[in-house]
């Protein structure tokens, strides 16, 4: 399979060209839709409908200004607050729990694992219906704290599961050494283990943020106007404001840019995060 | 994984130092519990309690229009009986099956093909890998918007390209024959990078010995692939497939943005039907019953597949 292999050496120049060519084509297929939206957001509305598209055009930020001076700014802020708070809460609760699960030997690890996996498998509507009914009573519909709480359903499970695999990969001998030196369980955790798992911690935090940020379904149902998040706001450009493609593209771009930047930061952990719960790390 | 366990045993058996006495072990256990209990309590509150509530609601004819229906348990099985007779529900299950089979199947095929292609250790493979992350990390709603643009004839570069080479095409998302395929194509674009990355990771840790041995025995490229590589990839294929299968049952943003379940009901999967019953028609009791069935089916399917994976791994 690799370059050193005899089979590959025989393939010669043309097969290598074909392989490189198909990879380039693939990259184009993957990036084209994404880049198309980006360029749409920078074109004047009339220019969007010009085909064949002009590659050289004077970019404009009018769509960004238009949405930012409207309701979108508030939704964007809501998304930021909700995602950050839900991430912090999940880490605060989930990281110590993950450490306990990794070190404590309670004999219930597999049951808890199954539970966490089950919450990740269930379709969001399974949580949305009961939360919607409960929030109606509590008058938590269309509130930021309502969203923060429901985001715990997926983020807390994610933190427990991802962080556990990171803690498991740190030798227990390090804990034992610190414990014998007189640091308590949590002293050991904060002074020795947590600093060692900093990269995993950062990746987990970014994952939580992205999951909350990307959520559409919960926010669609549990918010109306006050607590509306950015993804829902962008969709409203389509449904209620009559297909202003420039604004839709600008809103979509603003929702996706933080995601793309963060994802590139944690690219090495991506598959691990997406499969957390089923594949033991 | 449990590297420290040996040293604990030796230290505690000496029991000379106060910190290694049995009391210390109880204390430690209590400290670990302190870290675990708050998270489990919150997890129970936000996942177990709602699940129970969902189950209870599914036994009532709850409709928001009639508040008194909330605790009416006079006919707990009624929702489930009407599900059996509900033509639209059966249709939604069939559409779900089609959507799941085609998206998971195509994602595995495309993922496998591309993983084989990329397995060569190129200089720029890291760049390629990062590029592959983009579709699946994009907010699902943005993916849906992107495809809405590509599927809307007057603004889509694809439609304009087809028209300019003399093959104008109608809009897929409003055609009863093509709407489901429009969803499938967008979903495969979004998620085949996931199966690809999992398979690529498996290919890169694959032992060289069986391949070398087969090659010495004169096996051709196809034979190598079918007899050696594919069997070794089977557990990964099953896990990746299971993941995509579970996710395909949750399909929502693409359908909501591209077709809204239409035209008619040709893209109305079970999840979308439950959403309509709950939040458009306000039949929350009935929608809960649909959801309970959906969750049960998801768990059952996963259990079956996990058993298969387990056996595969054992065989190896």
Short key terms for the protein model shown above:
heterodimer; A: 281 residues; mainly alpha; MetI-like fold; 2 domains; globular; B: 316 residues; 73% helix; disordered N terminus
Care to describe what's here?
The complex is a heterodimer of chains A (281) and B (316). Chain A is built from 14 helices and no strands. Chain A has 281 residues and is an all-alpha fold. Chain A has 2 domains: 6-62, no CATH class; 64-274, MetI-like fold, CATH 1.10.3720.10. Chain A is globular and about 70 Å long. With 316 residues, chain B is mostly helical. Chain B folds into 2 domains: 5-57, no CATH class; 78-315, Orthogonal Bundle (MetI-like fold). Chain B has 13 helices and no strands. Chain B has helices at 5-14, 22-57, 78-85, 87-118, 125-137, 140-151, 157-164, 179-204, 209-216, 221-249, 253-258, 270-280, 284-315. Chain B is globular. Classes of the chains: A mainly alpha (281), B mainly alpha (316). Chains A and B meet through helix 1, helix 4, helix 5, helix 6 and helix 7 of A and helix 1, helix 2, helix 4, helix 5 and helix 6 of B.
């Amino acid at each position: 399979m690799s370059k050193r292999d005899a089979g590959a050496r025989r393939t010669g120049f043309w097969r290598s060209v074909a392989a490189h060519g198909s990879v380039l084509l693939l990259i184009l297929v993957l990036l084209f839709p994404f880049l198309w939206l980006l360029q749409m957001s920078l074109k004047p509305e009339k220019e969007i409908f010009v085909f064949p598209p002009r590659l050289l055009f004077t970019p404009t930020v009018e769509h960004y200004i238009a949405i930012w001076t409207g309701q979108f700014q508030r939704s964007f802020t809501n998304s930021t607050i909700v995602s950050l708070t839900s991430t912090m809460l999940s880490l605060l609760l989930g990281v110590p729990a993950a450490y306990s699960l990794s070190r404590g030997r309670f004999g219930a690890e597999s049951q808890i694992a199954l539970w966490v996996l089950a919450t990740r498998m269930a379709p969001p509507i399974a949580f949305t219906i009961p939360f919607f009914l409960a929030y109606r009573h509590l008058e938590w519909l269309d509130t930021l704290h309502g969203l923060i709480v429901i985001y715990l359903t997926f983020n807390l499970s994610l933190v427990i599961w991802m962080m556990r695999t990171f803690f498991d990969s740190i030798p227990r001998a390090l804990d034992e050494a610190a414990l014998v030196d007189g640091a308590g369980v949590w002293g050991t955790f904060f002074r020795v283990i947590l600093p060692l798992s900093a990269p995993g911690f950062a990746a987990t935090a970014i994952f939580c943020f992205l999951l909350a940020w990307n959520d559409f379904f919960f926010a669609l149902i549990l918010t109306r106007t006050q607590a509306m998040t950015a993804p829902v706001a962008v969709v409203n450009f389509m449904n209620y404001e009559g297909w202003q493609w420039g604004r839709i593209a600008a809103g979509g771009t603003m929702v996706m840019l933080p995601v793309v930047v963060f994802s590139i930061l944690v690219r090495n952990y991506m598959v691990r995060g997406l499969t957390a719960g089923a594949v033991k790390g | 994984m449990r590297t420290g366990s040996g040293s604990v045993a030796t230290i505690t058996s000496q029991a000379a130092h106060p910190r290694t006495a049995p009391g210390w072990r109880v204390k430690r256990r209590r400290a670990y519990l302190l870290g675990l209990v708050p998270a489990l309590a919150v997890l129970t509150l936000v996942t177990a309690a709602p699940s129970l509530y969902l189950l209870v609601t599914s036994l009532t004819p709850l409709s928001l229009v009639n508040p008194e229906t909330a605790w009416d348990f006079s006919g707990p099985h009624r929702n489930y009986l009407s599900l059996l007779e509900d033509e639209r529900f059966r249709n939604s299950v069939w559409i779900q099956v089609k959507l799941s089979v085609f998206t998971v199947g195509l994602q595995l095929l495309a993922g496998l093909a591309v993983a084989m292609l990329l397995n060569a250790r190129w200089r720029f493979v890291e760049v390629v890998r990062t590029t592959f992350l983009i579709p699946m990390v994009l907010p699902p709603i943005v993916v849906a918007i992107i495809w809405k643009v590509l599927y809307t004839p007057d603004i889509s570069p694809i439609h304009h390209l087809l028209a300019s080479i003399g093959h104008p095409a109608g809009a897929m998302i409003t055609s009863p024959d093509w709407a489901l395929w429009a969803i499938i194509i967008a979903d495969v674009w979004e998620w085949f990078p996931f199966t690809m990355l999992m398979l690529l990771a498996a290919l890169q840790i694959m032992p060289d010995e069986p391949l070398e041995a087969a090659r010495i025995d004169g096996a051709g490229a196809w034979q190598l692939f079918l007899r050696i590589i594919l069997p070794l990839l089977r557990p990964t294929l099953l896990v990746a497939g299971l993941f995509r299968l579970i996710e395909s049952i949750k399909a929502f943003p693409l359908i909501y943005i591209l077709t809204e379940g239409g035209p008619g009901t040709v893209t109305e999967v079970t999840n979308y039907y439950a959403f309509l019953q709950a939040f458009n028609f306000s039949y929350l009791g009935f929608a809960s019953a649909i959801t309970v069935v959906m969750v049960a089916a998801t768990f059952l399917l996963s259990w079956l597949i996990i058993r298969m994976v387990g056996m595969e791994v054992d065989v190896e």
